[in-house]
Write a structure and sequence with these properties.
This protein has 11 helices and 2 strands; from the N terminus they run αββαααααααααα. With 275 residues, the protein is mainly α. It is globular and about 60 Å long.
Amino acid sequence: VTTTAVTSGCDGAAGYVSGAPIVPHSLNSMLSAVLMGYLITAALDHVNYLVPESIRFPISCIIFLVGCIVDLLMKEGLDNLGDTPLEVFFHGRNSLSYFDPHAIFFVILPPLLFESASGMSWHVLKKVLPSSLILALPGVLINVCLTGVICKWFITDTAGHTLSWEAIFLLSSILSATDPVAVVAALRSLGAPAKLSSLIEGESLLNDGSAFVVFLVFQDWVGKTAPNDEKLCAGTSPSAGCIIGKFFQLALGGSLLGILTGMIVKWWIRHARFL
């Protein structure tokens, strides 16, 4: 992906990433889009800070709304800009839409989880851990079911037909793993008890794993004809034993890997100052 982007940006020839066309100057436009997005976010945060606290909205909600507005404006005016800096910015936004989803899962998500986990108090977290586990395991399953029922009523395909239950629950498993950044920020600004904030934040750290297993299960059901090496469980539909086994494999394996990594990092931090 990087090679294609660099080549396209240097020689002006359009390249392809996973079969999708990348416009000329893709690397330059992608960097411009990232920089412009950062500047817009910083400006919005500064303006929002000037608003009285009693009527101030969470910055994440404002960024979401502004992003929707910018997206609509880009779709309307992309073909009428000519050779301008805004065209480079808009093309950068389109190039970023071809970003590899695996990079989000393996590169962007881990630092976010680490930042959230490192900022929590362990003494408070261990008191609310049982409640967080209940919300993250059976709570996510209930959320998937309820979200799936609602999506079944309102979401259709391009032909106007309702989606299958397997596809609906696949979508709801993606939507069920919420990230309560705005909620936690609002609780902290309101001076809510640390136990409540830790409960919500602890659940958000744990629900990604359970929602990911649910996603893999329904992905297998949707892709029944896919090769077995691309499935969570081999066969046309995953069995209950395979699902439970894979869940404990991912849960326990991830926990052991996290503990081992934490011990290594702790040792490194303790001895790095003497190097």
